[in-house]
Amino acid sequence: MVLFVLKASVFFCNVLGFKVPIPHWLTPGKTVVVQTALDNERFRFDLDVEHPLLGIMFEQSGVFREIE
Fold first, then answer.
1. Series of mean pLDDT values for 10-residue runs along the chain (68 residues)
2. Nearest one of 65, 67, 3 to 33, comparing CA atoms
3. What is the model's pTM?
4. I need a surface site. Which of 22, 26, 48, 68 has the fewest CB within 10 A?
5. CA-CA-CA-CA torsion for 31, 32, 33, 37, nearest 10 degrees?
6. What pLDDT does residue 8 have?
């Protein structure tokens, strides 16, 4: 079961209190984060970052569990 999906493709810079959009070619690119429940104690975390001109910049995938 997918718990959480975040997709981001627009980045901003705060300039004197104003949100100014950063051009796509200057950003890290489209970012997608997915958390998927595997069971009651473990979840999978997937992170992908793809730049519009340079392609895939970063990928990460891992399984995490709660430690008491």
1. 78 91 84 91 93 90 89
2. 3
3. 0.71
4. 68
5. -170
6. 79
Q: Which two tokens stand for residue 48?
A: 């992908």
**Contact between 52 and 64 (Cβ < 8 Å):** no
pLDDT at 34: 93
The answer for 44, left when phi > 0, alpha when psi is -120 to 50, beta otherwise, is beta
Domain ranges of the chain: 2-65
- Separation CA 60–CA 9 (nearest Å): 18
Residue 41 CA to residue 58 CA, distance in Å, equals 27
